[in-house]
Amino acid sequence: MARVKRGVTSHAKHKKTLDAAKGFYGRRKNTIRAAKAAVDRSMQYATRDRKAKKRSIRALWIQRLNGAVREFGLTYSRFIDGLNKAGVTIDRKVLSELAIHQPQAFAEIVAKAKAALPALPAAA
After folding, report:
1. Which pTM was predicted?
2. Cβ atoms 113, 86 nearer than 8 A
3. Are 36 and 17 in contact (CB under 8 A)?
4. Which of 21, 67, 78, 114 is an S-S bond match for 35, by CB 3.0 to 4.6 Å?
């Protein structure tokens, strides 16, 4: 019977893990036990932070819109309410880009939203 040399797949798995740990600090980059734990944890962080990035970018769009519509005497929530009542379906990303790069077009959208809102009662 011919001799069978083992370990090819385990070497490949170790190499894959160590390649993923490239750039890590200390033993985490070159010891398989430490590297495996570090890579597993880094994958969890990556998954979590892809979701968090989406949340933070949306929050940035909202902050930009709030600042832009306050120049027209509205708040963000009143602006979004006006857009919904006017039947304008533009997402926050595009609205934010319009506010930055095309102020005239954004002003027209704000005017539509304002027109769709009921007039506020005069302050006493």
Report:
1. 0.73
2. yes
3. yes
4. 21
